[in-house]
Amino acid sequence: FALALVWLVAATIQDIRKREIPNWLSFSLIIFALAFRALYSVFYSDIRFFLLGLLGLGIFFILAEIFYYARVFAGGDSKFLISLGCILPGTSLYLSLIFLGFFIFILMFVGGFYGLVYSLVLVSLNRNNFAKEFKKQLKMRKMFVVIGLVLALLSLIFVFYIGDGLFLFFPLIIIAFPFLYIYSKAIEESCMIKLVNGKEVTVGDWLYEEVRVGRKKIKPYWEGLSEEEVRILKGYRGKVKVKYGIPFMPAFLISFILFILAEFLWYSYRSFFDFFLSYF
User: Among residues 191, 195, 197, 198, which one has the least CA distance to residue 208?
Assistant: First the structure.
């Protein structure tokens, strides 16, 4: 855990400063974690500790692929999630699955709250641009709002029909969804697009619009710029629009610290409970 904490701090600083996480950080953490588990297994003649590390690696690899292709995480975030799969498993299969699932739960909760706070900070720093863009997006997507209102009204009638007040949050969620979508699009258009020199782009950056360099066209793609495209843009004298996402590694770091604290409290509680039972 201490090893992962050091790597997480380094990755967080890198993500905040350069909006990228080098592959060597993720891959080196995997190598060191598996090496530690292998030495532990040899020393205690227990291969399970090493195999559980491989299990965590496999489970988080699958989750990382799902999150990446669902566009929840960028490439660097997904790779670092895989490396944490080697760190989190405990000394038994049961504990390992609990730890892995619990960390994902914390990460989703912290990530959602962190994303909301970060977006509010962006809005406060770009109030005028955001207000104009929000009005623009609202006009462009009036139909979304109308559909949301109709569906919310129908669901409200259904709630009154079944007579169960517990389902009142359904209409609220339905009516809020179009506005949340418009809010996120307004933030993206007004706060996350920057005009930079071609030589400043890096691998994985998201182009906002197509760029023509000589006879070649570089089109926006959700996986970001490739090494070849970056090489071409380095020689481009003009400026390009690049869309930046939210640096998500701080959410990883906060989630990992909360996970360690929760595990410490859980073990402390178990130790106290076992002592209490043995005393009586």
Answer: 195
